[in-house]
From TrEMBL:
This is M20/M25/M40 family metallo-hydrolase. It holds the Pfam family Peptidase_M28. It comes from the Bacteria. Signal peptide: none annotated. Residues 21-227 form the Peptidase M28 domain. SUPFAM superfamilies: Zn-dependent exopeptidases. The keyword Zinc applies. The lineage of its organism: Bacteria, Bacillati, Bacillota, Bacilli, Bacillales. InterPro entries: M28_fam, Peptidase_M28. Keywords: Aminopeptidase, Hydrolase, Metal-binding, Protease, Signal, Zinc.
Length: 246
């Protein structure tokens, strides 16, 4: 099933821009749902291969692999519009969720900027509340995937967590547990995860760097490794995720 939601955002210049969220559902054994999301917009004038063609690509790969499988939970895939102008797509989506739907949501998995950063991470809520992240980390270990979490070098972003700058934030605000996949490097500069690579600094939002040719030529093999690893991790997580007993 697909449906389109329209959002209207008035920019500072008074210009009205229309954007859409694209939603697809796969009914699972349980009618409780997991929302899997990635924004499909980019910063104006940027190819956006990393931010966020990569997230969209990994979700499409997972969808294809589930095609003939019965999944434990109902999966709601959402491609968000208008993330780059202030996470408008995900905020609109959560504003339309009924209390029943919120209660019926097991978790949200956000994928944003997966292929350029030096290291692969999964984040979640702090401590035990971050059970989706912890399950993803366990699965990564089992599958020998090179995925870790934010080491918490910066006290503003404690171990395992991250900032509210992507589409997971709107769901977190509703108390929905989340996991968020990203490639960056938390050891660099202000240790805020913004500078993704030692070699070329931040890639996202840069018209030269966030392009297929640049990433391919400057980081040979990285794109393929990241896409492969995150696809396996997403498929494993959605296949094995278990709600903790309350
Ligand atoms: Zn992004």
């Amino acid at each position: 099933m697909q449906k389109f939601k329209h959002l209207q955002q008035r920019t500072e210049a008074g210009e009205t821009i229309v954007s859409q969220n694209i939603i697809a559902k796969k009914i699972g054994e349980s009618d409780r749902q997991i929302i899997v999301g990635a924004h499909y917009d980019t910063v104006k004038g940027v190819q956006g291969v990393d931010d966020n063609g990569s997230g969209v690509g990994v979700i499409l790969e997972a969808i294809e692999s589930f095609q003939h499988k019965k999944m434990p939970y109902t999966l709601t895939f959402v491609f968000f519009g208008a993330e780059e102008i202030g996470t408008k797509g995900s905020e609109y989506y959560t504003s339309q969720m009924t209390p029943k739907e919120i209660q019926n949501t097991v978790a949200m998995v956000n994928l944003d900027s997966l292929i350029a950063g030096d290291k692969m991470y999964v984040y979640g809520d702090e401590g035990e509340d971050g059970w989706v992240r912890d399950q993803a980390l366990d699965l990564a270990k089992k599958k020998k995937l090179n995925v870790e979490t934010n080491p918490g070098l910066n006290p503003e972003y404690p171990k395992g967590s991250t900032g509210d700058w992507s589409d997971h934030a709107a769901f977190k605000k509703l108390g929905i547990p989340f996991a968020y996949f990203e490639a960056t490097n938390w050891a660099l500069c202000d240790q805020d995860g913004y500078v993704q690579t030692e070699k070329h600094g931040a890639i996202w939002h840069n018209p030269e760097k966030d392009s297929l040719n640049f990433i391919r030529s400057q980081f040979p093999g990285r794109m393929e490794e990241r896409l492969h690893t995150f696809s396996i991790l997403l498929i494993e997580l959605l296949t094995h995720i278990k709600e903790p007993k309350k």
